[in-house]
Design goal:
The chain is mostly helical. It has 15 helices and six strands.
Length: about 375
């Protein structure tokens, strides 16, 4: 995924602590205890939604991918709906790409006009947000429509060349229900583009986070540890070691963070004193939690022990981040607390259950290859 789309993905993770930094920066504003509790409680709740539902959808996504590799209809009409697998090599390079992107943004904001940069970013994330929100709400909208609804199929095809040398550039299939989702998402997108309202920002942010957890798949637990460990160092360095995070956080305007006003009780929907949480602090632990849910499913024990333990660990880590921030009145990189919690809790559970070796041997790609091997062996027997 880092190779295919380096800019948006790296940008997302480059700002993961930026959101947390901005969240921590709100400590210097005077806010009522009730408003602060409501804001941080709402941020924690919103962070849990894409992790929980994204993890559940990642299981369905993984099964569809497995069917496709075995020669069955995978259910993916477009490549954008298919999951991207993060390997250990991708995980090792990810913090470097994120650091380069973060520092590049820092230089851009120093050299060029902040207004024009954010205008380009707004248009770019408007397009991405409309597609992400449409994909997120598609299953729910499909259930609302009656069976008798005339759901017509469409295809957007753009090719290059002719004859045998013809090459597909864009091949996107959709139906009437998808068009309805796209229309609703476009309305939200225009609202965000014109008003930059915090509710529109959150709708896009939740869609980005849920899609990230659903479609970004770690191939094994070791890769997850490499990714989280690298971003742990990245987060700590850029928050405590330099002012780059703070500068980019204050300058960057895009729906790559969840926000909630601390003065909502006083000013209503027009509130402006926001607490924030970057999407990277949701997506990065979220894809690891989703991997553990798929591991639970592979055990076929009708239990979700590792998923729930890591999910509770995430709540603990995020709560600890907020607690330390208010105690020491200093910016705190969320991954400093989330990574040890999300990795440590499931490992302890695995040790207690005697399944640590099995957990680290779990490999999605190898399990998906097993049915292919069996089918090839049966075909050889038939040929004999």
């Amino acid at each position: 995924m880092a190779e295919a789309e380096p800019v948006p993905e790296a940008a997302l993770n480059a700002t993961e602590s930026n959101g947390t930094e901005a969240l921590n920066a709100t400590a210097k504003f005077v806010a009522t205890p009730e408003g602060t509790a409501l804001a941080y409680g709402s941020l924690v709740f919103m962070a849990l939604l894409p992790i929980f539902f994204g993890a559940l959808r990642s299981v369905t996504c993984s099964k569809s991918k497995e069917l496709g590799e075995n020669g069955y209809d995978s259910g993916f009409r477009n490549s954008a709906d298919a999951p991207e697998t993060i390997t250990s090599r991708d995980a090792a390079r990810f913090p470097i790409i994120a650091s380069c992107t973060l520092f590049g943004l820092y230089l851009f904001f120093k050299v060029f006009s902040q207004e024009y940069i954010n205008l380009l970013l707004s248009v770019y994330f408007f397009a991405l947000g409309v597609l992400a929100l449409s994909h997120t709400m598609s299953p729910a909208v499909s259930r609302i429509f009656p069976v008798s609804f005339p759901n017509k199929q469409y295809q957007l095809l753009f090719t290059q060349g002719s004859g045998e040398s013809k090459e597909e550039i864009v091949n996107y299939e959709f139906d009437t229900k998808n068009l309805v989702c796209l229309l609703i998402s476009s309305v939200v997108g225009v609202w965000y583009l014109l008003k930059k309202h915090w509710i529109a920002n959150n709708l896009f942010g939740l869609a980005f986070a849920l899609n990230g957890v659903e479609l970004l798949h770690l191939n094994n637990v070791s890769t997850g540890c490499i990714l989280l460990g690298g971003l742990f160092v990245y987060d700590v360095f850029w928050v405590f070691g330099t002012n780059v995070m703070v500068t980019v956080a204050k300058s960057f305007e895009a729906p790559i963070k969840l926000v909630f006003p601390q003065d909502l009780l006083e000013k209503g929907l027009e509130a402006s004193n926001f607490a924030m949480l970057g999407l990277g602090d949701i997506v990065i632990p979220g894809i690891f939690i989703a991997l553990l849910l798929r591991f639970d499913v592979s055990l076929k024990k009708n239990s979700r022990t590792y998923f729930y333990s890591s999910f509770l660990a995430y709540i603990f880590g995020l709560g600890l981040t907020i607690f330390v921030m208010h105690t020491f009145k200093h910016a705190q990189p969320a991954l400093l607390y989330l990574v040890p919690a999300c990795v440590g809790f499931p490992v302890i559970v695995a040790l207690l259950k005697g399944e640590l070796t099995e957990m680290f041997r779990y490999e999605e790609s190898s399990e998906e290859a097993e049915p292919n091997e069996e089918s090839s062996e049966s075909e050889k027997k038939k040929d004999q």
